[in-house]
Write a structure and sequence with these properties.
- This protein has 138 residues and is α+β, with helices and mostly antiparallel strands.
- Helices cover 19% and strands 35% of the residues.
- A five-stranded mixed barrel has the order 1-2-3-7-4. The protein has a two-stranded antiparallel ribbon with strand order 5-6.
- A hairpin with a 4-residue loop joins strand 1 (69-81) and strand 2.
- The N and C termini lie far apart (54 Å).
Protein backbone atom coordinates (compact mmCIF):
# COMPACT_ATOMS: atom_id res chain seq x y z
CA UNK A 1 0.00 0.00 0.00
CA UNK A 2 2.80 2.40 0.87
CA UNK A 3 4.46 1.70 -2.45
CA UNK A 4 1.29 2.70 -4.37
CA UNK A 5 0.95 5.93 -2.41
CA UNK A 6 4.55 6.81 -3.18
CA UNK A 7 4.02 6.21 -6.90
CA UNK A 8 0.91 8.40 -7.07
CA UNK A 9 2.69 11.37 -5.47
CA UNK A 10 6.07 10.82 -7.13
CA UNK A 11 5.30 13.28 -9.93
CA UNK A 12 5.23 16.10 -7.36
CA UNK A 13 8.74 15.47 -6.02
CA UNK A 14 11.15 18.09 -7.24
CA UNK A 15 8.31 20.30 -8.49
CA UNK A 16 6.45 23.10 -6.82
CA UNK A 17 2.72 22.52 -6.37
CA UNK A 18 1.95 26.22 -6.97
CA UNK A 19 1.84 25.99 -10.83
CA UNK A 20 -0.56 23.04 -10.58
CA UNK A 21 -2.86 24.94 -8.24
CA UNK A 22 -2.73 28.05 -10.41
CA UNK A 23 -3.55 26.00 -13.49
CA UNK A 24 -6.40 24.23 -11.76
CA UNK A 25 -7.75 27.55 -10.44
CA UNK A 26 -7.57 29.07 -13.92
CA UNK A 27 -9.52 26.18 -15.49
CA UNK A 28 -12.07 26.22 -12.67
CA UNK A 29 -12.73 29.96 -13.02
CA UNK A 30 -12.84 29.72 -16.82
CA UNK A 31 -15.34 26.88 -16.59
CA UNK A 32 -17.55 28.73 -14.16
CA UNK A 33 -17.51 31.89 -16.26
CA UNK A 34 -18.41 29.98 -19.40
CA UNK A 35 -21.48 28.57 -17.64
CA UNK A 36 -22.70 32.08 -16.89
CA UNK A 37 -25.29 33.81 -19.00
CA UNK A 38 -23.91 37.15 -20.19
CA UNK A 39 -27.23 38.00 -21.76
CA UNK A 40 -29.23 37.62 -18.60
CA UNK A 41 -32.52 39.35 -18.14
CA UNK A 42 -32.29 42.90 -16.96
CA UNK A 43 -28.67 43.32 -18.03
CA UNK A 44 -28.15 47.05 -18.29
CA UNK A 45 -25.51 49.28 -19.76
CA UNK A 46 -25.10 52.29 -21.96
CA UNK A 47 -24.47 51.21 -25.53
CA UNK A 48 -24.26 47.56 -24.55
CA UNK A 49 -24.00 45.24 -27.54
CA UNK A 50 -24.18 41.55 -26.66
CA UNK A 51 -23.55 39.96 -30.05
CA UNK A 52 -25.23 37.92 -32.73
CA UNK A 53 -27.71 36.30 -30.33
CA UNK A 54 -29.75 39.51 -30.12
CA UNK A 55 -32.69 39.61 -32.53
CA UNK A 56 -33.75 43.02 -33.84
CA UNK A 57 -37.33 43.66 -32.71
CA UNK A 58 -38.39 44.47 -36.29
CA UNK A 59 -37.54 40.91 -37.35
CA UNK A 60 -39.94 39.30 -34.87
CA UNK A 61 -43.05 38.40 -36.85
CA UNK A 62 -46.54 37.17 -35.97
CA UNK A 63 -46.04 34.05 -38.06
CA UNK A 64 -43.03 32.88 -36.06
CA UNK A 65 -43.38 29.62 -34.17
CA UNK A 66 -44.86 30.21 -30.72
CA UNK A 67 -42.00 28.21 -29.22
CA UNK A 68 -39.25 30.40 -30.72
CA UNK A 69 -36.91 31.79 -28.05
CA UNK A 70 -35.18 35.08 -28.82
CA UNK A 71 -33.02 37.67 -27.09
CA UNK A 72 -33.95 41.30 -27.56
CA UNK A 73 -32.07 44.40 -26.53
CA UNK A 74 -33.61 47.80 -26.18
CA UNK A 75 -34.85 50.59 -24.01
CA UNK A 76 -37.91 50.43 -21.77
CA UNK A 77 -40.46 52.87 -23.19
CA UNK A 78 -43.60 52.11 -21.15
CA UNK A 79 -44.62 49.86 -18.29
CA UNK A 80 -47.97 48.40 -17.29
CA UNK A 81 -48.74 46.43 -14.12
CA UNK A 82 -50.65 43.17 -14.54
CA UNK A 83 -52.15 40.97 -11.81
CA UNK A 84 -48.99 39.02 -10.90
CA UNK A 85 -46.66 40.27 -13.62
CA UNK A 86 -45.52 43.39 -15.44
CA UNK A 87 -45.61 44.31 -19.11
CA UNK A 88 -42.92 46.53 -20.60
CA UNK A 89 -42.81 48.07 -24.05
CA UNK A 90 -39.24 47.69 -25.30
CA UNK A 91 -37.98 49.64 -28.29
CA UNK A 92 -34.85 49.47 -30.41
CA UNK A 93 -33.92 51.11 -33.70
CA UNK A 94 -36.03 48.58 -35.67
CA UNK A 95 -39.32 48.57 -33.73
CA UNK A 96 -41.21 48.04 -30.49
CA UNK A 97 -42.59 45.00 -28.67
CA UNK A 98 -44.36 44.26 -25.40
CA UNK A 99 -42.66 41.90 -22.94
CA UNK A 100 -44.53 40.12 -20.12
CA UNK A 101 -42.29 39.39 -17.13
CA UNK A 102 -42.20 38.89 -13.36
CA UNK A 103 -39.64 41.69 -12.99
CA UNK A 104 -41.00 44.88 -11.49
CA UNK A 105 -37.83 46.96 -11.22
CA UNK A 106 -37.30 47.98 -14.84
CA UNK A 107 -37.61 51.75 -15.02
CA UNK A 108 -38.58 53.71 -18.08
CA UNK A 109 -35.52 54.64 -20.11
CA UNK A 110 -33.37 51.78 -18.82
CA UNK A 111 -31.43 49.61 -21.29
CA UNK A 112 -32.27 45.88 -21.03
CA UNK A 113 -31.58 42.52 -22.64
CA UNK A 114 -34.41 40.02 -22.31
CA UNK A 115 -34.74 36.37 -23.28
CA UNK A 116 -38.28 35.30 -24.09
CA UNK A 117 -40.65 33.14 -26.09
CA UNK A 118 -42.39 34.74 -29.04
CA UNK A 119 -46.16 34.71 -28.48
CA UNK A 120 -49.09 35.92 -30.54
CA UNK A 121 -52.52 36.80 -29.16
CA UNK A 122 -55.26 36.85 -31.79
CA UNK A 123 -57.94 39.52 -31.31
CA UNK A 124 -60.52 39.35 -34.12
CA UNK A 125 -62.79 42.39 -33.98
CA UNK A 126 -65.41 43.36 -36.57
CA UNK A 127 -63.80 41.15 -39.21
CA UNK A 128 -60.34 42.58 -38.62
CA UNK A 129 -57.35 40.98 -36.94
CA UNK A 130 -56.03 43.26 -34.20
CA UNK A 131 -53.73 40.68 -32.64
CA UNK A 132 -50.33 41.52 -31.23
CA UNK A 133 -46.95 39.81 -31.08
CA UNK A 134 -45.31 39.89 -27.65
CA UNK A 135 -42.60 38.13 -25.67
CA UNK A 136 -43.10 36.07 -22.56
CA UNK A 137 -39.88 36.18 -20.53
CA UNK A 138 -38.11 32.87 -19.95
Amino acid sequence: MRQIRNLSLSFLYGHSIVPYRLGLTFFLITGLCSCGNLTSTGLRGAGLKIGTNVTPIGEIKAKQDNQAIVYIQGQVEKQAPLIKQWAYKIKDSTGKIWVVTNQKNLGEGSEVVIKGKVRYRSIPLAGKELGEVYLEEE
